[in-house]
Amino acid sequence: MAKQRVVVVGGGLSGLSMTMKLCELGIPVDLVSLVPVKRSHSVCAQGGINSCNDATRQLGDSEWKHFDDTVYGGDFLNHQPPVKEMCEWAPKVIDLMDRLGVTFNRTGEGFLDRRRFGGTLYKRTAFAGATTGQQLLYALDEQVRRWEAEGLVRKFEHYDFTSPIVDDNGACRGVVIQNLHSMEFLALPADAVVVASGGPGLVYGRSTMSVMCNGSAASRCFRAGAKYGNAEFIQVHPTAIPGADKLRLMSESARGEGGRVWVPRRSQDTRDPKLIPESERYYFLEERYPAYMNLVPRDIATREIFDICVNEGLSVDADKMCVYLDLTHIPKAELDRKLGGILDIYQKFQGVDPREVPMKIFPAVHYSMGGLWTDYERSSSGGLVVGSPRNHETNIPNLYAIGECDYHYHGANRLGANSLLSCIFTGLMVGPGIENKLKQSKTAAADLPPAVFQQAVAAAKEQHQAVLQRPSSDQNPYQIHQELGDLMTRAATVVRRNDQLKAAIATVEELEQRANVATVVDTGSWTNQNVIFTKALMDMFPLAKAILWGALQRDECRGAHFKPDFSMPSLTSDTREGRLQEAEQWCDRFQANTDKWLKSTIATLVDGQPKLSYEDIDTSSIPPRPRLYGLVGAEEIETVWKRRAAAKSAQVDPMAARAAAAPAVASL
Amino acid sequence: MTNELTFIQKHEFLLRRIHSLTGLVPVGLYMCVHLITNASILNGVEAFQNAVYAIHSLGNALVFVEWGAIFLPLLFHAIFGVYIAYSGQFNTSSYGTAKNWRYVAQRITGLIAFVFIVSHVAHMHGWFHVGFWEKLMHSLGLAQFRAYNAASTAAMAMQANIVWPILYAIGIAASVFHFANGVWTMGITWGVWISPAAQKRADRICAAIGVGILLIGFSALGGFMTLDAQKAEDIENRMYTESVNTGRVVPNAKKLTNPKLLEEQAGTAKP
Amino acid sequence: MIASNQPSVIKVRVKRQDGPGQAAYWQHFDIPYEENLNIISVLQKIAAKPITRDGQRVAPIAWDCGCLEEVCGSCTMLINGRVRQSCSALIDRLLEDSPSGEVVLEPMSKFPVVRDLVVDRARIFQALKKVKAWVEVDGYFDMGPGPKQSRTQQEAAYPLSECMSCGCCLEACPQYAKVEVIREAGESEEAYRQRVEAANSVAFIGPHAINQAVLFNSNPTGQFKKAERLEALTEPGGIQVCGNAQNCVAVCPKHIPLTTSIAQAGRAVTVHAVKKFFE
What we know:
CATH architecture of the largest domain in chain C: Orthogonal Bundle
Number of domains of chain B: 1
Largest sheet of chain C: 5 strands, mixed
Oligomer: heterotrimer
Structural class of chain B: mainly alpha
Number of helices of chain B: 11
Distance between the termini of chain B: 83 Å
Radius of gyration of chain C: 22 Å
Strand content of chain C: 5-15%
């Protein structure tokens, strides 16, 4: 038998941690990436990485609380076993990254310094200046380079993943990739393929994501039959710097370190912001959310900023929507030490010093909670069976998905500084599972008849040629992309309405038709970025449609998915008695909604159209409860809900036992 | 794939470090001593001649010192330096920082200094002390220096043509810059000064040393340009006679402007 | 911030090259002026409508870009003769500084051109391999936290670890010479790569790699491999090639104290070499 190999597609945090872990286990890896892996999008993550730690523990924190915060922040749409496992690993993941040389900020005594992030009351977040993602990525990149020097890793940088190779039994046996310079195709046989290709930001045109985050790898797996989960859950980051080519992230750490969000109380006040007295400033997050203040979870911050600008007309600028994010009350030396990197970015791209003048920011598409559907094996303690080959395997055998491009961990909304954790964690945790998968197999993909791979390459070539040889049309792929981005941003970001979604679906169909005949100006066969972009554009449509359909069908509000027509009302009564009564009804409605909608949306692509089904969620550890950040009457709802929950658990203990015994993932 | 390394590639680190070291010791150090010795002309012909006597008191060992401690290190520093200069690509048009200009200047002044030193040695010594060659050089107006008529021959050599002092002025300036800037870069290369602040402090010290040596060099040059060579020769001849009598110098016709003096000397010595 | 007399078009001159080893040529483009554009936006506009000033329809310009936030290093090129990232090169600022009112884009000159503004920077990563720029941990199992480090240590290491391998320091370094190996007809990708690596292996590693060696030699665990890194620094193409022009530190977009690292490495290799000689 030839040596078994694994192909990893994507060289960000999850791809690299996976590669490094597999190498440690002695498994050779072919690492495929559009860009040199050190330039992957993970470098853009600024704020930090979460874990319960020795200091927070003594304030009552625990892995369980981190788990609870993550699930509560995700509005209970997260399957709980993977989240529980992740939160238990979190302190160990940070310890490992510390050992790998990540330059985490330190306390005076030499421990890792921590900051607070949104959606929690504990200072859980370890950080390295304001470039934590970059620092983590580099540490992994260095380890992978070490394995590359030892001959265990072959890098295929500047290669595009064009499709998984699926055999007659429906199992993945390798990948077809295309060299972005020579445009030549190549088949890599693989006994497991791990897609770690990140998010699909380009579906929204401009976002906080890098230009290679086009979602094409996930989409090509989707086309090949992989299921796609929770597509409609797209996180819009509350604070980004609007730009012509990109919406640049302004990290949540700016608020974590004391940044205050405000607008002038008077609409379009033209005064210099520093001259506006406190009494005439509207610190709307602080007023509306006295417990969390500026550090409410991202979906809420986003919606509030959107609301202030769109509904209340209090945008700072008249011609473009934005609010102030103010750091000017913090000493400069402290800002430079803790946030130097991100403040430099603002200054560099806006030409204004945020240490002197409040920043102007507005929400932008930032992260996809959804992604390729993957399996897992639940342990008896409610976590994962580490080493199980099922963990993170898609419905196509041997094809795995990890990192942002899978649908786990973040539910309906991701907490800040949890993505770096989920990416590194999945890479590390899934490695041993793949090792076991390989052990189970008595064959190696490299021993398959060459025709299997030759056919796959021929098909990819044919598709490529077909795009190159299209008859001339007046359809320009870049123009279509811009239209797609504008449409998706309007219809499927902060606020969603069914009429708009329906219209958007019709328009996306038209755009797809146009993209399918769009002409490539460059028909050459050397470094043809034009044709690569056109192919990636065509692959944005399955994802765009999955997002739109998922959003259209989900008639509720959950995390990042906000439909005002289906929002849960605040309590209106003036008396506590009255509010308690309303709370009863509120809780009834909440329960009904949970019964109906606490399900993952699972899309399968049939003839280019997403077909949706719904999957039950494993909530065996933490029963769902209302997410009540800032809701009027939250106290009363909580009282009622707690009483009901207590009654329920007392009454039906056997049910809890049944839940624990149930298979982790309901069959689909 | 096997990779055949050239000799220079194989020993690049050692060669570069030797190159760096020879720039300071002995070449740079020698230059300083040489310029200071020359500047003793400002204290009079006697002072300078005495200094030269001191050097020549080494007698037959002098040739070994000259070649072993000066010429060979210098040739190595110069030739390897030319190789280094040609391996770089100037780009001050895009990156016009002071440090980058100094990088360029270091290489240009090195080349100038090399040309200057070669011509200076020809001008004064004619390169090789071999009979026919010396005659040839002398007939070309070169090999002008006579150690026992040190000041006068040097002054005459300098005063023979305006071209010489100009060449010397440029040559000395280039050599001194090359030395002072070289000491500064050497300090980085060997890791003596590290932080930008330390490098700046070292820079100031190197600049001060450079200016000091340049002043000394130019003073010597001015001294020889304005020296009355005839008077100087008289003094030197008197000193020679005395010194031979006291056994301080070994008689040597080749080190005299007027070898007849040797015969006269011999005459007076034998009653 | 915007000057009142802005031109109606942005004149862009691009140095193009169809493939490795081919002749370069210039093309001119006029882009309608807008406020707050950067070079990336300009290139995007050209890509959407690749028509030269003379009305000739041409192939879109090939260029690399990634994060557009100046943290990935992809979009490095020569802009008006100087190396920098094109995402952070703002047109308004360039026009202020350019009397000709023209924006000139060229590929980096120290790396082989792949096409147009795309260059092959594999040599950068090869140098990182050479200096063993990693912490040699035993493995990736949970072994507790790393060694405690003082804030001072962290604050010294962090700037060094911000290097994004963009190659600005190498482009501006007068001692860093281009190494280009042209692929022969019929040569396999692997054979070609080996030839490239062999050629690169004796050429200057550059300031970025020296800086990484210093970074890992200062790491409490990384320093266990200090001697090996210092050996690597004295191999052909090592630190000795540095000519102290200090352009690296002047052009580094991350303001990494490269010359301080070079001096530190200089001291370390001096001590190492002397010790080794007498041991």
